[in-house]
Amino acid sequence: MAGFEDFFSSFLSILPQIMSAVDLSLYAIAVFFYGGMAAKGLRYREAWIRWPLMILSGILCLAATSSLAGLFPLPKGLELLKLDAFFAGLLSSAILALSFYLMTHDAKVYTIPSLAKKLEALKAAALSGKGLGPISDAEAEKIASGRIKGEAIESKLSGSKWYVKVQAGNSVKVVEIDAIDGAVEKIYHHNDMMLNFLLDWKKSAGLVISLLLLIAVLFTFKSLPSISSDFEKMGISQDLMDQLKKRGEAAADTECKEALQEATSTFINTFPEVKDNRTKKSFQKMVEGKILSLRSLKESGGMVALTDDNKACIFSRESKFCACLEVRNN
Predict the structure, then answer these.
(1) Same structural domain, 207 and 61
(2) In terms of domains, do 8 and 100 share one?
(3) Quick check: is 50 in a domain?
(4) What's the domain range around 272?
(5) Per the CB 3.0–4.6 Å rule, which of 45, 151, 196, 239 could disulfide with 188?
(6) pLDDT value at position 1?
(7) Is residue 267 included in any domain, yes or no?
(8) Is 197 exposed, middle or buried (0-12, 13-18, 19+ CB in 10 A)?
(9) Residue 93 sits in the same domain as residue 178
């Protein structure tokens, strides 16, 4: 029985460290879980884009579990389940997924239906006798000029795309055309990426959504949800954890172990009191509170001191300090 008590005491003494490790593990899982959900809105498939954005968005969503948790009030008694933080993370990841989708809506993603359409265009071209080659530069310029209502000034074939510059008033725009079926895939301003981005209302809206979420999190962030921070709610005070830690450390020492077992086996007042003031003074140096009573432990040869702050401080046979335990009655 004593062995189980020692094990239980030692386990409780390291419980804060265990809970801290659990917190860190849950944080890492949350970053990849929420970040993975947010990254589903990205239309880019390149890993060098997706992975950094996934991790950064996961960190932001993790921070949002604290900032937005107030939007999900829970019935009393369910706070320890952290469901409010979980729902806040889901909400923030959904917001970021929408934002990413809007900002990358024009990225070309080849799905099965779109590939089937391309194959049908190739088949039609082959059957009509036009061959499978790209459309001519004249055809590409005609398509671009008709779309922009301007004059084509330059055209360039790159891979399976025609890039045609069109002068439209005082601005030059680039029309991206599929070289096989002649479909216009994208139109943007020449050499002005920021302007292209801002003029696209979907991209601008996605950027604004991300910035609003970031600002909301930064201005309302308090601390990350933590299992270890809920000890008080579970009735386990930090003072009690400190006592258990000291007791667990003392349990590893044979002499302290014997003294602890004897001191906690019965009422402390039943042990004989030490009247020598010199002995009291020597032990007083090792405890914080004032020693009211010093008693000897016959079997282990140790001492137990009762202090004015309701503590029972145990010492081993060699007068080594072992631990101070909280007592309700002296």
Answers:
(1) yes
(2) yes
(3) yes
(4) 253-326
(5) 196
(6) 44
(7) yes
(8) middle
(9) no
Does residue 236 sit within a domain? no
Print the SS3 string covering the chain: CHHHHHHHHHHHHCHHHHHHHHHHHHHHHHHHHHHHHHHCCCCCCCHHHHHHHHHHHHHHHHHHHHHCHHHCCCCCCCHHHCHHHHHHHHHHHHHHHHHHHHHCCCCCCCCHHHHHHHHHHHHHHHHCCCCCCCCCHHHHHHHHHHHHCCEEEEEEEECCEEEEEEEECCEEEEEEEECCCCCEEEEEECCCHHHHHHHCHHHHHHHHHHHHHHHHHHHHCCCCCCCHHHCCCCCCCHHHHHHHHHHHHHHCCHHHHHHHHHHCCCCHHHCCECCCHHHHHHHHCCCCCCEEEEEECCCCCCEEEEECCCEEEEECCCCCEEEEEECCCC
In a domain, 275, yes or no: yes
Tell me the mean pLDDT in the region 308-330.
79
Same-domain check for residues 225 and 191: no
Residues 97 and 41 sit within 8 Å (Cβ to Cβ): yes
For the segment 50-71, the average pLDDT, to the nearest whole number, is 90
Q: Are residues 225 and 147 in the same domain?
A: no
Span of 164-173, 274-283, 284-293 with lowest mean pLDDT: 164-173
Domain with residue 145: its CATH number is 3.10.450.40
Nearest CA-CA partner of 145 in 195, 187, 180: 187
Closest C-alpha among 216, 205, 208 to residue 64: 216
Task: Give how many domains the chain has, as a whole number.
Answer: 3
Q: Are residues 87 and 6 part of one domain?
A: yes
**Structure confidence at residue 166 as a pLDDT band (50, 70, 90):** confident
The answer to whether residues 11 and 97 belong to one domain is: yes
C-alpha to C-alpha distance for 187 and 170, rounded to whole angstroms: 16
Q: What is the mean pLDDT of residues 140-149?
A: 82
